[in-house]
Amino acid sequence: MNIINFGSKYKILWKLGLLVLAMFFLITLLSLITIYNITLLDKNADILTSYNETLKLVESLQIKSNDLLNNEKAKEIMFDQELVEKYKDFDNYVKQFMAQAKNAVSNRELKKTLTRLNSSRENFNSLLTATYQAYDDEFDVWDTAEIPMTKLINKREGLHKDIEELLIKNNALINSITVNSSKESRIIVSYMIAIVCVIFVCLMWFSYYLTRRITFPINRLIGAAREIGAGNLDYKIDLKGYDEIGELGHTLNQMTDSLKQSNEKLRSMLQLAVTVAHEVRNPIAGIGNAIQVISAKFPKDDPYREIISEMTGQINRVDEIIANLLNYARPVPLNLTKCRLRETLLNIMAFLKTSGTASDISEKVDIPPEADPLVNIDIKQFTQVFMNVVINAQQALAGAPGSALAIRAAVEDNKLLIEVIDNGPGVPGDIITKIFEPFFTTKHKGSGLGLAVSQQIIRSMDGDITVSSVPNKETKFTITLPVCPEK
């Protein structure tokens, strides 16, 4: 069961392993075929060498026979013992050669030629034996009569003709082997080329098939991730199989379902919150108006005026929370205009400086003229976002000695970067990942919607807002906006 589970879980690894094994098998098969063909060619070369050596032996035998035929004296015509020994060596060699050649040669025509050569050898053997017997039985070695000499010469002439015939056949066989070896070499090379082409085509097809099997579902996963990233949580991945990619697709579908359920719950909560906010906002407004009427009836130095002022502040805070909630749940439509932000940013910082919210903070604004490109934004909503980020930084620095706040702007990669940097206590790592989540706050008086609404507004302008922090050193918020082409 564990082996089966391993195979189904790591199916892609099995496919890659199968491809490697197939390539190894085909390469091994090609190597064996090549070795066999080279061996066969070597054997044919050995045969040619053997035939050439046979040719030399036969030529030597022919010379010996000519020497015998040219002798005129009977005493010198006696059987040549050196010729007998030479012939015996030749006969043994040819026998061994024939056995070797029959095992080495696979061509049918070559086997027929070898058979004819062996027949000639046997005829030669019989003729030479008969000649030897003629010397022993019919002639006196000292007899120089014309008739015995004529017989001997006739037999020697017959031997001479058979030797010549054997030479002719031997040369023909050498030529035949040469031609057939060359032909077989061409055939072998053709076969090898064909086999290599077939193996190459098979490997290409198998690689394409395996690559297709792997990359096709991956491409579908990439497309699905893009759809889900674009907010289409109804998109489903239809991947069949139980390999790693199939498991990933199934997991991604489960994640999408979970996100969809979470979004539906959040949407329901927001809808409920919007309804409650509407229902609460009207009474709160009425209470605020009533408090203002009551406050007008008290003298300015009356101690109750301080209590009424605190009540007014709390009512304003509740109204701000309700406004943020409504803005997050139902974003205000953008009123986009092309503008430059340098002057706007400088005015906002001057306003915040004079408002008393940052009287004890050292502020540095670095917005050079070249960092003032055209951007297409809703200036009112952008101002809300920028002020929210700066005020959060000022609140983080409140009361800390040596507090410093820096505003910087620059253009990089056709984008305007606006950085708000403070040297406050920083944001812990476990909090920084949640800082843009709705209703998340570490402040006692915060609603947890300010940064969430800010991120939503900036992203609706095709920009982004990010945060990075080094504890006890600095925190940096970066607002990124696309630059419009200059006209």
UniProtKB/TrEMBL annotation:
<dbReference type="GO" id="GO:0005524">
    <property type="term" value="F:ATP binding"/>
</dbReference>
<keyword id="KW-0472">Membrane</keyword>
<keyword id="KW-0547">Nucleotide-binding</keyword>
<feature type="domain" description="HAMP">
    <location>
        <begin position="212"/>
        <end position="264"/>
    </location>
</feature>
<dbReference type="Pfam" id="PF00672">
    <property type="entry name" value="HAMP"/>
</dbReference>
<keyword id="KW-0808">Transferase</keyword>
<dbReference type="InterPro" id="IPR003661">
    <property type="entry name" value="HisK_dim/P_dom"/>
</dbReference>
<dbReference type="InterPro" id="IPR036890">
    <property type="entry name" value="HATPase_C_sf"/>
</dbReference>
<dbReference type="InterPro" id="IPR004358">
    <property type="entry name" value="Sig_transdc_His_kin-like_C"/>
</dbReference>
<feature type="transmembrane region" description="Helical">
    <location>
        <begin position="188"/>
        <end position="210"/>
    </location>
</feature>
<keyword id="KW-1133">Transmembrane helix</keyword>
<dbReference type="Pfam" id="PF02518">
    <property type="entry name" value="HATPase_c"/>
</dbReference>
<dbReference type="Pfam" id="PF00512">
    <property type="entry name" value="HisKA"/>
</dbReference>
<dbReference type="InterPro" id="IPR005467">
    <property type="entry name" value="His_kinase_dom"/>
</dbReference>
<feature type="domain" description="Histidine kinase">
    <location>
        <begin position="275"/>
        <end position="485"/>
    </location>
</feature>
<keyword id="KW-0067">ATP-binding</keyword>
<keyword id="KW-0418">Kinase</keyword>
<keyword id="KW-0597">Phosphoprotein</keyword>
<keyword id="KW-0902">Two-component regulatory system</keyword>
<dbReference type="InterPro" id="IPR036097">
    <property type="entry name" value="HisK_dim/P_sf"/>
</dbReference>
<dbReference type="InterPro" id="IPR003660">
    <property type="entry name" value="HAMP_dom"/>
</dbReference>
<dbReference type="GO" id="GO:0016020">
    <property type="term" value="C:membrane"/>
</dbReference>
<protein>
    <recommendedName>
        <fullName>histidine kinase</fullName>
        <ecNumber>2.7.13.3</ecNumber>
    </recommendedName>
</protein>
<dbReference type="InterPro" id="IPR003594">
    <property type="entry name" value="HATPase_dom"/>
</dbReference>
<dbReference type="GO" id="GO:0000155">
    <property type="term" value="F:phosphorelay sensor kinase activity"/>
</dbReference>
<feature type="transmembrane region" description="Helical">
    <location>
        <begin position="12"/>
        <end position="36"/>
    </location>
</feature>
<keyword id="KW-0812">Transmembrane</keyword>
